[in-house]
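G., the chain you wanted modeled:
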Amino acid sequence: MKIGIPKGLLYCRYHNFIETFFLELGAEIVTSEDTNKKILDEGVKCCIDEACLPIKVFHGHVSSIKNECDAIFIPRIMQLYDKEYICPKFCGLPEMIKNDIPNMPQISSYPIYAWDHKAMYKWAKNTGNLITRNNIKIDKALKSALTVQKNSSYRFNDKKYPYTIALVGHPYNIYDSFVNMNLIKKLNELNIGVITENDVDSSNINLQIKNLYKRPFWTFTRNSFGFSTFLAKQNKVNGIIYISSFGCGTDSITVELIKYEIKDLPFLLLKIDEQTGEAGLNTRIEAFKDMLERRIKIESYFPSYG
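Predicted structure as tokens:
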């Protein structure tokens, strides 16, 4: 059986888990190409105008492989952690796809509650039944997938740079080089190293959340706030760059929480949408580097600055 897996949204974070699970069950995997102009244009054509860029891109990935597979995996991710949710669009993503893209094959979209082992087994059984009714095989595939995911690493900062910044945002905006216009490569060429939330232990992230009036309702908010403010308070970065999709509701709150907490640490907010011109982004990150240089020079002359 051919299972289609779109390379959009949280595929960048959980592709090892997803692919291992289906391969262990004996399925043949059909993945879309890495995000490119063709996929973006197809997604914009299929999706409603009000949707954010990652949702439009996901539509493009689905459309590009829908005729090449027997079933397609559309993750309905409800929760990654207890008492927290991620972007609300994930909850209704399968329905969006069904209504926006015609002639879809069978869709696998059983809800995913990643923090609950029993709920994960229910997901595995429901999803695995597309391929086999052997519960022992499904259980083995789930265990293998969880092990592979646990041992996966997603890091960028593998060498020393004169400057280091915290790159904050939803994972699919950070890891999709087409969507973010090769931002990490551009920063490295400017001698700026990148640290993401994967480089910070979750206990340190959770510790920072205690500074908030109440626990965040959204997982992306918790991760972004906890990770960036921890690095800022520990003086481990020279600045922060937040990459956000235009029109993202959760980011509008997260950005303000971070800016309030980090005080005068250099902060750059980059908004991305379906426009692919790079000149504006290049100018802004070059100006940000100039800001980092000036700040370091001032601090060397006036150690008590800040």
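The chain has a mean pLDDT of 88.

Shout if anything looks off.
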